[in-house]
């Protein structure tokens, strides 16, 4: 286990910031967050303590407008058009890693050629390839799907959904999705 202690811990909740905060980590999971000296550490647990009294611990940041397919050159759109899909998806994965290592844990890609952004998302977090994920988990509620359906229909487009669980199938049907694929119940 690792106990990280810092002068300030931002919780992301209104008035929830903690002076002398601490985060207890076991393996790759956060198991407790609170004030230093108040976290329940199992008796006899081997704990490495990292003291950062002049630092701040904060939740992951959100970047709501990224283009993972773009490079840092003067004409990223042309470079993107010239690259193969295989090379482009590798660049996108590298850019996603750079974001993660800089503290961005949630990013919204604003579009890539051939829906490569969707492919990357499914490979990283949306599919059943991810350890701990489950096809039984429903990602969108009916109201969220209905908003997407309404917007697609407003501009004359049909909309499809991947639905793995019974609940996801029903949500898609109730929302008016035109095509449901990958049904596994």
Short description:
By secondary structure, the protein is an alpha/beta fold. It is built from 5 helices and 8 strands; from the N terminus they run βββββααβααβαβ.
Strand content: 25-35%
* Biggest sheet record: 4 strands, mixed
H-E order? EEEEEHHEHHEHE
Number of strands: 8
Rg, rounded, reads: 21 Å
Instruction: Estimate the mean pLDDT confidence.
Output: 86
In total, how many domains does the architecture comprise?
A: 3
If helices are DSSP runs of H or I spanning 4 or more residues, what is the number of helices? 5
> How are the strands ordered across the major sheet?
3-2-1-4
Tell me the structural class.
Answer: alpha/beta
- Runs with pLDDT <50, length 5+? none
N/C terminus separation:
38 Å
Share of residues in helices:
25-40%
Structural shape: extended
Quaternary organisation? single chain
Structural overview:
This protein is of the alpha/beta class and 185 residues long. It has three domains: 2-57, Urease, subunit C, domain 1, CATH 2.30.40.10; 61-126, no CATH class; 142-181, no CATH class. It is 31% helix and 28% strand. The protein has helices at residues 76-82, 85-101, 116-126, 142-154, 166-175; strands at 2-9, 18-26, 29-35, 48-57, 61-66, 104-109, 160-162, 179-181. It is extended.
